[in-house]
Amino acid sequence: MTVSVPFEFDFKNPDYSAVFAHRAERLKKIRQNPQAVPALLAHYKANPAQFIIDWGATADPRNVERGLPAVIPFILFPRQIEWVEWCVDKWHNQESAPVVKSRDMGLSWLTVALACVMSITHDDLVIGFGSRKEEYVDKIGSPKSLFHKGRMFVSLLPPELRGGFDQKTTAPHMRLMFPATGSAIIGEAGDGIGRGDRASI
After folding, report:
1. Closest CA to 66 of 21, 145, 12
2. Residues 52-68 pLDDT 10s
3. How far is CA 193 from the centre of its chain?
4. How many Cβ atoms are within 10 Å of 99's Cβ, its own excluded?
5. Could you give the 3-state DSSP secondary structure of residue 19?
6. How far apart are CA 193 and CA 131, in angstroms?
7. Which of 122, 56, 59 is nearest to 88 (CA)?
8. Cα 15 to Cα 29: distance, rounded to the nearest angstrom
């Protein structure tokens, strides 16, 4: 996979307004040529990291104290791109893929974003998330929960690229569903992890 940031981006001094302007221009072109959306999604199916770079957003309330917006474009740095490609490769090869990480590397957001992109671009996937406590997987209104991040990630995408997701109707507790592809992200907690629905990932 060839992944790139389609503009100059300084991670130390980020100009998020330029990124949003670039995205607005691309979205305008897509809406002028809506028949191109299936081909675009096919491209992103093979390049999920590029989807995140091109359209994804993340949130960090700590940005406010630094004079930055809380919601920012999710521009992946090289190690994050490498992780996405490694994770997808492990899935294709049906291999286990434990990850050892430090805090504040964005892996929770990245994992959820990848799951959402895969659900938008693949038919009939079931991706499972689990934790020892249910509130870490899904608790409405809690930014700490993984599914809160998922709902936010998809809701911040252009409607054309959400896979039919609608926060009011396709995101009940412990479920994120994508009607356009039939894919779903499911949550489990406690001793019951892995005993419920079968999952692709």
Report:
1. 12
2. 999 999 987 887 887 77
3. 22
4. 10
5. helix
6. 8
7. 122
8. 22
